[in-house]
Amino acid sequence: MGPSGVGKMTLIDAVLEKFGQLFERKRSVTSRAKRDIEKAEKNFIFVSPEEFKKMETGGAFIETRQKDGVYHGTSYTEL
Question: How far is it, in rounded angstroms, from Cα 50 to Cα 29?
């Protein structure tokens, strides 16, 4: 856990590269914009805030959180 840009995904990528046969990456759903270095559907599932709220209302998430107007959640389909 850490602030945006601190290297969380870089660390996860390094662990998966070395021990990928033991772990499988789970993607979070987010309403934030994709960064240039990210690949859609690899790092996150990117949706609009409206789509996120629709998914949330439909019971798609195990948990959700909102910070600074951006939604994040763990969907049942990713587990």
Answer: 13
- Domain ranges for the chain: 26-78
At 17-57, the pLDDT tens digits run: 888 666 666 788 999 998 888 776 677 899 999 999 999 99
Query: What is the distance between the alpha carbons of residues 75 and 56, in angstroms, rounded to a whole number?
Result: 9
Return the bridge partners of 23, or none: none
Q: How far apart are CA 48 and CA 39, in angstroms?
A: 16
Task: Look at residues 61, 45, 44 and name the one whose alpha carbon lies nearest to residue 53.
Answer: 61
> Is CATH 3.40.50.10490 the right assignment for the domain spanning 26-78?
no
